[in-house]
Amino acid sequence: MSVGRFAALFRRVKTLPITSHLKNTPCRVPSGSSSSSSLRPPSHFVASVESFQKGFRNRFASFYGFKTIPKSLYGKSSRNMSTTIPLANSSNAELANAGLKLLVNKGPHAQKAVGIWLFGCAAWVFSLVVLGGVTRLTRSGLSMTDWKFTGSLPPLSEDQWLLEFEKYQKSPEYKRVNKGMSLEDFKFIYWMEYAHRMWGRGLGVVFSLPFMYFLAKGYITRQLGIRLSTLFALGGAQGLIGWWMVKSGLEEPSTEYVQPRVSPYRLATHLTSAFVIYCGILWTALCVVMPDPPSETLERLRGAGRVRKLALPVSVLVGITAISGAFVAGNDAGHAYNTFPKMGDTWIPEDIFSMDPLIRNFFENTALVQLNHRILATTTLASIGGLWYATRKIDMHPAVQALIGNTLGMAALQVTLGISTLLSYVPVSLASAHQAGALTLMTLMIILTHTLRRPSPAVLRSLASIPGKMKS
After folding, report:
1. Distance of alpha carbon 268 from alpha carbon 136, whole angstroms
2. What angle do CA 431, 434, 435 make, to 5 degrees?
3. Beta-ladder partners of 220
4. Dihedral sign computed on CA atoms, order 231, 318, 349, 416
5. How many alpha carbons fall within 13 Å on the CB side of residue 250?
6. Contact 264, 331 (CB under 8 A)
7. Quick one: how far is CA 381 from the chain centroid?
8. Spatial contact of 456 and 295, defined as CB atoms under 8 Å apart
9. Cα first-last separation, the chain
10. Alpha-carbon separation of residue 392 from 82, 273, 389 (angstroms)
11. pLDDT at site 329
C-alpha cells in the first residue's frame, strides 16, 4: 500500500519541481502503523534531490550568467530545464551522459576561468587584426627586412638604428616610394611593424601558459584540448604566413611602373587565417560558457531552427565579403574610383576584364576587385535586412531577436564606414574602423549562429516533457 501511494506521488510531479512535491506532501500514517511508516520520503532523499537541483541551477547559471553573455539568453530556460533533467549526481561525467556538451571539468569555477581566458584571447586577436591594418595603412609592414620566429630586441643604440635603416634603404620600397626618408620617419614605421610582430608573439604566450596551467589542473577535457591545440598550431603558422607575405613585398616589382607591395594573395591568406583563428577561439569560448542554447519552449526551438536555415548562408556571405576586402587592401583598390555609387562616371568600368587569363581580374584588377567588394557589401546588407524582416513574426527567444537587430545595425554602420573611407581617399582612422567593423559584424554573426544551434538531447527531452500550457 505504501509503495503504491509513493509511486502515485511521483507520477504527479510533471509540472512542479520534485522537491516542491516532496515538501508539500502531507505525512499520512495509516491506521495501525507507527509513525515510522510515513509515506513522506526519507529526509536524506529529499536533501539529496534538493542538493542536485541547487547544484544544477548553479551550473546553468554559470553557463548563461557569464558577464559577456546577455542575461536574456538564460532568463527562463535554465529554470525550466532544471526541472526535467534526469536525476543524477551533478558530476561532469553524468551530466555529459545526460546529453550536455561540457568542455571543462571540475565545475563552474573552472568553467568561468577557462571562459575568461578564451574571451581574452579572442579580444587579443581582434586587437592584433586592427593593429595589422594600421601597420599596412601606414606602409610600415616592409620596414623590417628580416625575421626571427622568436623575435628579437629592437635597436637600442644609434648605431643599431643606422644598421636597420641601411637594410631598409636596400629594399625596393625605399628606392621607389620612400627615397630620402629621414631616420626619425623610419623609426616610426619600424616601431609599428615591431609592435605588430611582438603583439602576435605575446598572444602565443597569453594562450600557451594558461593552456598548460589548465591542463595541469585537469580543467581541459580531451575534446577541448584537441580544439585548443589546433588553434595554437594555426597561431604558430600565422607567424610564418606573415613573413611569407612580407617577403613578397621585398622583391623587385616586375616593372618600374609598379610600386612595391605585398602579394594580394598572400595578404588575403594572412588576413583570412587571422579571421579563422579569431572565429575559432570565440566559438570555443561560447561553447565553454554556454554549452546549450537558450530554449524555453518547443515552439521557440522550432523558430530557432527556421532562423538558423536563414542565418547560416548570411554568415557565409559575411565571411566572403570580409575576404574580398583583403584583396581590396592588397591591390590598394581603395585609392581608385573614389566615388559612390558610381565608379567614376560609369556604373561599371570598361577595363574590368583587361587581364589574361580571365580569372586574374577577380583578384588583381583594381576596378573589378573594388566592384566585387561593393556588390558583396550591398548584398550582405540586403541579406541581413532580409533576415531581420523574415524573422519578425517567428516565435523565438528575445536574445535571438536582439542579436538580429544588432547585426542589422552593425551591417548598416559597416557599409557607411566603407563608403566614407572610399570618399575620403582611405584615411587611416576610417580604414581602421572599417576593418574593425568587419570583425565586429563577424562576431555578431558567430554569436547568432551559436545561439541558434540545436540543443542537446537532454534539453530536447526536458522540453518535450513540459505540459502544453507552458509552451503557449
Report:
1. 13
2. 90
3. 104
4. negative
5. 18
6. yes
7. 20
8. no
9. 38
10. 29, 35, 6
11. 92
For residue 420, count CB atoms less than 10 angstroms from its CB and return exposed for 0-12, middle for 13-18, buried for 19 or more: middle
Reference 408, options 383, 435, 430; nearest CA is: 383
The answer to whether 288 and 224 are in contact (CB under 8 A) is yes
Cβ distance 407 to 318 under 8 Å? no
d(C-alpha 224, C-alpha 281), whole Å: 11
Q: At what angle do helices 222-249 and 264-289 cross, to 10 degrees?
A: 160
The DSSP code sequence of 155-203 is: P-SHHHHHHHHHHHHTSHHHHHTSTT--HHHHHHHHHHHHHHHHHHHHH
In terms of Cβ atoms closer than 10 Å to its own Cβ (0-12, 13-18, 19+), residue 346 is exposed
Interatomic CA distance for residues 366 and 377, integer angstroms: 17
CA distance 472 to 460: 17
Q: What is the CA radius of gyration of the chain?
A: 29
Cα gap 388→145, rounded to integer Å: 48
Name 346's bridge partners.
343
Q: Residue 165 and residue 179: Cα distance in Å, rounded?
A: 12
Q: 343 has which bridge partners?
A: 346
Q: With beta carbons less than 8 A apart as the criterion, state whether 372 and 324 touch.
A: yes
Cβ burial, residue 463 (10 Å; 0-12/13-18/19+): buried
- Grid cell digits, residue 14: 510533471
- Cα–Cα distance measured from residue 468 to residue 472, given in angstroms and rounded to the nearest whole number: 7
- Between CA 145 and CA 32 the distance in angstroms is 97
- Tell me the sheet residues that pair with 378: none
Instruction: Identify the band that residue 149 occupies on the pLDDT scale cut at 50, 70 and 90.
Output: confident
What is the mean pLDDT of the segment spanning 430-444?
96
Asked if residue 460 lies in contact with residue 297, where contact means CB atoms within 8 angstroms, the answer is no
Over the stretch 9-44, which tens digit does the pLDDT of each residue have? Answer: 434 433 344 334 434 444 444 444 444 444 444 554
Residues in the chain: 472
Predicted pLDDT at 465: 66
Cα→Cα distances 316→40, 319, 321, Å:
58, 5, 9
Question: Per residue in 267-309, pLDDT tens?
Answer: 999 999 999 999 999 999 999 998 888 776 778 888 888 999 9
Handedness of CA 57, 62, 68, 69 (dihedral sign): negative
Q: 149-162 burial string, b = 16+ CB within 10 Å, else e? A: eeeeeebeeeeebe
CB atoms within 10 A of CB 117: 21
